[in-house]
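Section 5.1 Outputs to date
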Amino acid sequence: MCAAPRPGAPRASPGSAIPRGCRLRAPVYGSGAPTGGGAARRDMRGPGAARSGRGDHPESDVATYAIGDIQGCHDSLLALLERIDYRRGRDRLLLAGDLVNRGPRSVDVLRWARDQGDSVEAVLGNHDLHLLGCAAGVRRARRHDTFQDVLAAPDREELLAWLRARPLVVREGSALLVHAGLLPPWTAAQAEELAREVEAELRGPRGAALLADWSGAPRAWRGDLAPAERRALALSAMVSIRCVDRAGAMEPAFKGPPGDAPPELVPWFDHPGRRSRDVRVVVGHWAALGLHLAADVAAIDTGCVWGGRLSALRLDGGAGGDEVIDVPGLAVPPPA
């Protein structure tokens, strides 16, 4: 998710967009980003075109959707599932991470996702890792965390085990799903290999140590990194990258919209040395970016928890263009 608004910045009111610093930036990086009004199906082949149900696709058609950051917004999730006519066992949903935190019903989102079986896959996001770290006792809960319902749940251990077993990267046809993005020097195949290495570490006896230390990882990729540094940097990039400098090193301090970035920074996907352009990388995490659709990247965190929208991008829509369906997000955003 994006950063909370700066101190003194105006708060979002019910029905407004997300807070300043987390606003959608469709004119800069968007492609017809959903705004205002009620739930709508937008076919990105025609700006603002509204549809309903499954549009051109018959009721029996199997659909694959990627869904942006849910962050405990269970009601918005259910509304989106109705909007896309999701059916377990027929359709496939890929969740872009950050299933939990800042919204009001994290435990219900996790229970729903767990109960969908093979119809739903999710990649780990930074808030999911924060929950796992708090549960393991290696991270401290923050003042505005809202995943206490998970930690107090009678099925807590089952839910945490399910979450811990989620991947960092999922390949789906020509798309590669990851929560935040990839470092420019990585190929898609290298990212998948690194993801498998980090996932094994997270699920093993040293997983708690990685959960405690990943946010202090090095910023730049080098071939001679020690194994622990390599895994920490890979994890940090996959769940938290936004902008990089001209050398391709992460800049974690900047969390605003791309148009406000210092001149020495570029979005990771625009770095001229990026080696993963042969796939379309589908990400969430950066709500200040908003909906951004390009041939080699699709950013779909549209700020649900900040009073924006919860968006689904159809991944198997063919050559006719992107199709995005969105529903309203949280009516009253959480405190900064």
